[in-house]
Amino acid sequence: MSKKFNYKKILKYLFIITLVLIVIVAINNQPVFADVGNNNSYDTGGSSSSGGGDDSDIFFLFYIIFDLFGPVGGLIVLAIIAGVFFYMKKSGKLHQMDINSQNAETDYQANLSENMNDGLSQSVAQAIRVDDPNFSEDAFIGWAREVFMKIQQAWNDRDWKVIRPFESQELFNQHNQQLNEYINNNKINKIEKICIRYCGLKSYRVDGDKEVLVVELHATMHDYVVDATSNQVLESDPNRNWFMKYDMTFNRKKGVLTEAGKSNKSTTNCPNCGAPTEITSSGQCEYCRSIITTGEHDWVLSNIVSIK
């Protein structure tokens, strides 16, 4: 005697499977903050994607399947899709396909970034040279790139004191606190294979008694979090290439001028006493105790944020 199919039970099980799939997608897309200043949200599109729209696509797919195959056939097709999905997920093939797709999108965005017009950067430099004729656009951009690489490396090495000469007191304290949170949680945010794809002056203004210069920087990098003891990957993927955009804001006291032959920075000698720069944790020269990382003598990084 043949056994009758209980379609209601099949429908119930497939409905549960569908809910599980949606929950898995939702969990995988939850933002986890990392990168210097917690700028990378680890969503599917990095800093340049807003996400969304996945649920409507799934339900539209269900509609098409049931319309083509009918109620029973649709349930069978959904069961097959669910089986293939779980097989690929368990074998890692689904994850690798996702990584490859995301990396291809990252490469496309980064290539567009390299072809950006430098007209804005040049006009900003010209505005600065009205009052500071020795200001060099190329020298400052080169220094901004150097600062970016140093802070990423310091974050990766979990040694923030080496950044003290480049950041304002407020930003240094903020980044140091964020880094200590990783250390206290026994985590390391690995930032590797950094490649700066674009760096240019974005805006300049005088704000009260200080000058504010914003640099826009685009870079690709591998950015993931591991357990400090086991080195097990906790967040993101070591093979995932992220495309990030940043605004780096630099301040200096109004009226400070670039010295001829120098590259818009004082990183090797104290501007007050001329001694080789050995910065204490309070931002002082170890010889004359002068505070030299406040923007009083030259540019200092006061903020860095990710942008869309």
How is the secondary structure organized here?
Elements (H helix, E strand, L loop, with lengths): L6 H22 L25 H38 L1 H22 L4 H11 L7 H21 L11 H16 L2 E21 L2 E18 L5 E3 L5 E13 L46 E7 L2
Antiparallel strand pairs: 1-2, 2-3, 2-4, 4-5
Supply database-style keywords.
308 residues; 42% helix; alpha+beta
- Domain count, please report it: 2
What CATH calls the topology of the largest domain is Nuclear Transport Factor 2, Chain: A
Strand content: 15-25%
Task: Quote the average pLDDT.
Answer: 76
- Unreliable stretches (pLDDT < 50, length at least 5) are 25-32, 45-53
Task: Kindly state the percentage of residues in helix.
Answer: 40-55%
Could you say which overall geometry the principal axes of the C-alpha atoms support?
elongated
- Give the SSE order as H and E letters: HHHHHHEEEEE
Secondary structure: number of strands: 5
Number of helices: 6
Major sheet: size, sense and barrel closure? 5 strands, antiparallel
Task: Explain this structure.
This protein is of the alpha+beta class and 308 residues long. It has two domains: 7-110, no CATH class; 118-306, Nuclear Transport Factor 2, Chain: A, CATH 3.10.450.240. The protein has helices spanning 7-28, 54-91, 93-114, 119-129, 137-157, 169-184; strands at residues 187-207, 210-227, 233-235, 241-253, 300-306. Strands 1, 2, 3, 4 and 5 form a five-stranded antiparallel β-sheet that branches. It is elongated, with a radius of gyration of 26 Å. The termini are far apart.
